[in-house]
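Continuing from the previous page of notes. For each protein in this section, the sequence appears first, followed by its structure tokens. Read the first protein now.
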Amino acid sequence: MVVFNAGDTAWVLVCTVLVLLMSIPAVAFFYGGLSKRKNVLNTIFLSFIAFSIVSVIWVSFGYQFAFGSDISGLIGAPTHFFLQGIALDDLNGTIPTLLFVMFQCAFAGLTVALISGALVGRMKTKAWVIFTIVWACLVYVPVAHWVWGGGWLMQMGALDFAGGAVVHMNSGAAALAVALVLGKRKDTSLIPHNLGYAVLGAALLWFGWMGFNGGSGLAADGLAANAIIVSNLAAAVGLIVWTALDTYVVGKPTVLGAISGAVAGLVAITPAAGFVDVPGALVIGAIAPFVSYFAIYRLKAKLGYDDALDVWGIHGMSGIWGAIATGIFAVPSIGGVAGLIAGNPGQVLIQIISVVATLAYSFVISFILAKVLDKAMSGIRVDESKEVGGLDTNLHEESAYNFN
């Protein structure tokens, strides 16, 4: 019989706060610092408004559809709208159900906030708000059910410990789709206006990620400890490898490259954190920078899409690598599932199916949604004069910096 565990509850409470740290100030500082000065407030606003909207959706009905009793592997059956009927002492495993709801709410809000990095400086606020509402309902909730809520990918045996598919590939594919609909910015150069903000945001992401991955087992145990160790290791290796790549390619290390490498490593280890050991994490973290570096500096230029802050390049591409790598390096002694190296090649195929399904669904629905909004709103992109002048002044009548 499963009973309430105060230690597990305390741990997941802490992890929930850590994911909230990622969802609001970390992403806001990271994206805000990377944007142009004339758009920094708008960039931060996109993260804040997205998280707020998703929070309301999640507790109203989103959680129920994502984690309710499975219907044909596609969606959950809602039974507790507005969380009515969930008592304070109801349990999900050994923790209160309400705590699980909030932990998952932080994941949902973060996922939508991540998408905003691809479209900074050129999307109408109203369009972003509507996109957030519809995307959370039509894309995030179903994919969360497929992978974590008892849906068809979970039934198939797809492994995604903390969100490689649900969070990173999902947001990356959506970001690419919206960027394609929006088109290129008038000025595609993007020298960070305040790299210090971006470094602070990356540091907060690294810190918060320990709760993101460490709490996903919903228990204060050895699995949580392993998740934190391999997550930190992948980030560290990713930073080192990207720094080495910068030094080799451009002749000098860059701070932007260093923090990009850390985030790429964290993204890649996310689906694997509860299934791999230290050697696997070393390889996953070391290869992630190569994957994202190629996407940002080769694939992006070749295909011509304008993903402003490289959401697809970092979250999408490293998320793909991490999901497949989970099927390669999973060890039974960690998560109870063997990967390719441990003698189960079929797990790689399952992981590839989960990758294709997540990317295809998220990209297609996101692209259609953006196109429909573009037609219905006479364009989801701001006027050229507003884009050139900056969205802080033209959309918010505010300035992040007042030097008068």
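Done with the first. The second protein uses the same format. Note its length before scrolling.
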Amino acid sequence: MRILHVVHQYPPDYVGGTELYTQTLADWQAAQGHHTAVFTPSPQPPADLALTQTHENGVQVYRLKLGPQSRTRVFWRTFGQKQVMAGFTAVLDQEQPDLIHIQHLMGLPAGLVDLIVRAGIPYVVTLHDYWYLCANAQLLTNYDQTICAGPDWWLNCARCALARAGHPQAVAAVPALAPLLALRQQKLQRVLKQAHAIITPSQFAAQLHDGNGRFPQKIHVVPHGIVLPPQLPGRTNTPNTFRIAYIGGLSWQKGVHVALEAFSRLPAPAEFWLAGDLEAEPVYSAELQTMATPGVSFLGKLDREAIWDLLAGVDVVVVPSLWYESFVFVISEAFAMGVPVIASDLGVLADRVRHDIDGLLVPAGDVNAWQHALARLQQNSALREHLREGIQPVRSFSNHAAEIQSIYQQIAPALP
């Protein structure tokens, strides 16, 4: 089968969850004998040779040089971008794919699907976040940082756009912005409605999108799998030291400040290891460092091997998110190492962590509740052991990828 992935960003320029997932899936498919390609914008400045092609681990990667994308450009490119349309047309002509997998369209024209439909190529869409419902992709409002239930282009969406642009009080502009945001919603919903299948990693995300789009027959819930190292490291935790880890982005919506404040209130000494890029949001990172009490260590960005070693030495992993996460790979990684998880009782996290079985669920943003949950585990080694015993085997990436391939076969059963 000839497969073409479309994604807004790709390694090595960007190494977030969607980017690494797309790379891993494309590599797996190439290893299975499929002709696999990726089309992605590049942050490199435009040049005479705008569209480049490289062969990476068996995958043809096409990068279209567009230069850095500001938030404003990301928003406007949904409505159209000539260079992207032309570059994608060239890739379609060269690759002649049997199937296209849209991983993410952030900063890409929704009109790409018109080219796909016109060419008669079936396509699937994976919902890695909430981009098709929310211009923030997070369903978190810019004006008061509360969770949004879904698009209301006249009220929430216009207010969010103004707040994001730095004009939260400019309510007079709402009537002018509302039709534009409604048009955005219409274009992106059409992407989903024309798709042959929609893939999401959780039942929660499926229900949320179904409630806003009404296409339940197309949605396939396919939980992510993870790539395990050839040999997991052995546990190195010192029995007399209670150790907590946070691994992920250092941004407000991740709720790291909530976990830090809760940690500062623990009745006995402990250690809190935080792994994440301190440069991504330097203002917030500086605030976290100001909050740090004895026992807190900022480890910076870690490679995969270092993350496995970190997990081998902790008693619990915390996921204190304040927004609707889409999956959270670190939960799977923690479980693979036999480490319980404390997570916010919110959205998909409530599906992934089973309270008092393999972890604890805590109200999002409630510092007192987080302090109580941490203290409960710190003071009760029997509970920690009980939660470790409740952890089930994690899903492998190969198992996940095989299920994705079966969806492809349902769409194009005549293809090899």
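What the second structure shows: The chain has a mean pLDDT of 89. The two ends are 6 Å apart (CA to CA). We return to this in next week's lecture.
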